[in-house]
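Fold this sequence, please.
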Amino acid sequence: MEIVRETKYNRAEELKSFDETKAGVKGLVDSGVEKIPRIFHVPKEYSTNANEANFDIPVIDLGQGVDQKESVEKIRHASERYGFFQVVNHGIPVCVLEEMLCGIRRFNELDAGAKKLYYTRDVTRKFVYNSNFDLYSAPAANWRDTFFSYMAPNPPKPEELPASCRDIQIEYSRHVMSLGFRLFGLLSEALGLESSRLFEMGCTDGLTFLGHYYPACPQPELTLGASKHTDDGFLTVLLQDQIGGLQVFLNNMWIDIPPVHGALVINIGDLLQLISNDKFKSVEHRVLANRKGPRMSVACFFSTSMMPSSKIYGPIKELLSKDNPPKYRETTVEEYVTYSFTKGLDGVSPLLHFKI
């Protein structure tokens, strides 16, 4: 009788083999894969189960005619309690949002050969496309491909971006920068500070653009679109399509953030939690894999990221007192984000490393 031996699993080799295809998760789907490779399997301790909860993240109207004091109070409440809120009437036309999602799709559905020209792990490139920035360090690979660019303070030249998404990426980023100035003014007031305080500190100095593409997954129960994590910038502006899958961890359960047509999801980043001395919360979130797809989203992080900077950030002095001493040591954005990037999405907040 012939004995069939199970092939030994060599994770390092399989990761390398997947990476060297330069085709990402989209390439696996295009090849007709019916069982997802083991490198994507989530460890048992990282449950993919969803919780049912009758709970809604606040939706805040930023339209003209809305009382600003009321908006500030709603943002303060959401930032302290949930770390997340959605905004409508934010000033970015719906047609721009829809075209941005189309741009993500156009790039990711280019001919495989054309896309491979952009595939790299060199984060100094003006346009970086790959699958899983932490592919070699994370407990499990995510069912997701991504491209990113630094859109401020030194954006790429137009010719350095793919034609498939170039114009809309530039236009959308310009709109997000404008919205960011407004949001940081409201957040400053929500902290009890002058409206210009966070702007003057440099919270709007940088903008990192990430376009995510989550192909349909044949075994979504075995993997995740994005493992649980917090965002390492000051603030994130997220555009998601109508498929859904984004969840936030609150009250010891995973809660859906359902898509709202024309809305943008806003969440507090680690650096804003640090400088607010824990007044505002950077909350864990994740994205479920889905049999539907592809799902598209755009995350814009207000942060100078790993760009060289000597600017020091610590808890804002005006927020401190004898009863509320600083909880974090001072750091630079570059140090913080480099630590977070190197660590990868391992389920542990980088903030713990900077606690006093």
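DSSP finds nine helices and 14 strands in the chain. The mean pLDDT is 94.
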